[in-house]
Design goal:
With 366 residues, the protein is an alpha/beta fold. The protein has two domains: 215 residues, UDP-N-acetylmuramoyl-L-alanine:D-glutamate ligase; 138 residues, Mur ligase, C-terminal domain (Protein-Tyrosine Phosphatase, Chain A), CATH 3.90.190.20. 35% of the residues lie in helices and 17% in strands. The chain contains 13 helices and 14 strands. Helix 10 links the parallel strand 11 and strand 12. Helix 2 crosses helix 7 and helix 2 packs across helix 8. The longest helix has 16 residues.
Length: 366
């Protein structure tokens, strides 16, 4: 048996026969007595897991949030097991699992981490391990707005499949609560609320408690995080957006967006659709960071794009430019649409640097 750290890639390695590869997540699902709720997806899994935790806690259930960004799963064996474990599961944690949670949640699937999984097919196959080993009395809750044709044959899943869209039908009171919360903006976050709600209802939480949890939700750092109004400009930190689809969702969530800061390291995904989206968008100011942002701004200029296209060598230059070009009362968004590893150790590092610069420059004399 080999217990693998999720970050170690086995790309181009052949696992010998009679060798079992496992990880903490796999061992936890096999041997813990907790009722396990697993949450995965390219984007939204942290938000759904955090929202669900607040809903269950509001409903008086004994739950704990563990996994990808929370407590390491095996640490729980040193303490009293909760009744319910909400486990955020990345593709790297699911890669070699041979067990699935009682309730599996899949938010969406888009190309990401394809270099780790030797292509998009390997990435998708890893994600689907969250449901592949479910039994008849289990539940699979997934995004009804995205077609999983070619990825998942629902007829072969023995568990009960529940598809959740962003349609408010059946979620009216919960939608009204979400609309009142400044930390929940955008259609994609409404769908995240409904996905978490579908699990909470399945576990017996009342809509009244769900609404209270939604009203009190304080968001998660680097996920359309409102930084407040600085020198008349509303700033948002969406450093978690490391793929184009995530940035598109963020842009669509902010109706008064005046400036977008984007760009980072390419990890092999196509930017053709994203470039066309920016070309046709109503965002007047585009600030491109190395490397992808610089290239996209250059491409847009060559296409005769009439937007204010600015190329920044680093984050400090980008933030300086944002303060100069963003109209008072409007919004500025950092949403990279790319990996951060060309400059930063991770997206948190990038988001923290952006927040620090915004706050520091906001205190400078104009």
């Amino acid at each position: 048996m080999v217990i693998k750290t999720p970050g170690v890639s086995f790309t181009d390695f052949i696992v010998p026969r009679n060798v079992m590869i496992t990880c903490q997540t796999d061992l936890f699902m096999k041997y813990s007595d907790c009722l396990c709720v697993g949450v995965t997806g390219t984007k939204g899994k942290t938000t759904v897991a955090a929202m669900l935790y607040e809903m269950l806690r509001q409903g008086g259930l004994d739950a704990r949030l563990i996994g990808h960004t929370g407590q390491p799963v095996l640490d729980m064996f040193e303490e009293n097991d909760p009744q319910i474990a909400i486990v955020e599961m990345s593709s790297k944690q699911l890669e070699f699992t041979t067990a699935s949670p009682h309730i599996a949640v899949l938010t969406n699937i888009y190309p990401e981490h394809i270099e780790h999984h030797n292509g998009f097919t390997g990435y998708v196959n890893s994600k689907l391990n969250i449901v592949r080993h479910q039994k008849k009395d289990d539940y699979f809750i997934c995004n009804a707005s995205q077609s999983f044709d070619g990825y998942c044959d629902f007829s072969k899943i023995p568990s009960t499949v529940i598809k959740v869209a962003s349609d408010i039908s059946g979620y009216e009171s919960i939608y009204e609560a979400a609309e009142q919360n400044e930390y929940i903006i955008g259609n994609h976050n409404i769908q995240n609320v409904f996905l978490a709600c579908a699990v909470a209802r399945r576990l017996g939480v009342s809509d009244r408690d769900i609404c209270a949890a939604v009203l009190g939700y304080k968001g998660v750092e680097h996920r359309l995080e409102p930084l407040g109004t600085v020198r008349g400009i509303k700033f948002y930190n969406d450093a978690i957006a490391t793929i184009p689809q995530a940035t598109i969702c963020a842009v669509e969530a902010i109706p008064d967006l005046d400036t977008l800061i984007f760009g980072g390291m390419s990890v092999g995904v196509s930017y053709d659709e994203f470039e066309n989206f920016l070309y046709n968008s109503k965002i007047p100011n585009l600030i491109g960071l190395p490397d992808t942002g610089r290239q996209i701004c250059s491409n847009l200029a060559n296409r005769g794009c009439r937007k204010n296209l600015l190329i920044a060598d680093d984050m400090e230059t980008a933030v300086d430019a944002a303060f100069k070009v963003t109209a008072p009362g409007k919004s500025c968004l950092l949403s990279s649409a790319a990996s951060s590893y060309n400059v930063y150790k991770d997206f948190e590092h990038k988001g923290n640097h952006f927040r620090k610069l915004v706050m520091e420059k906001g205190e400078e004399e104009i």
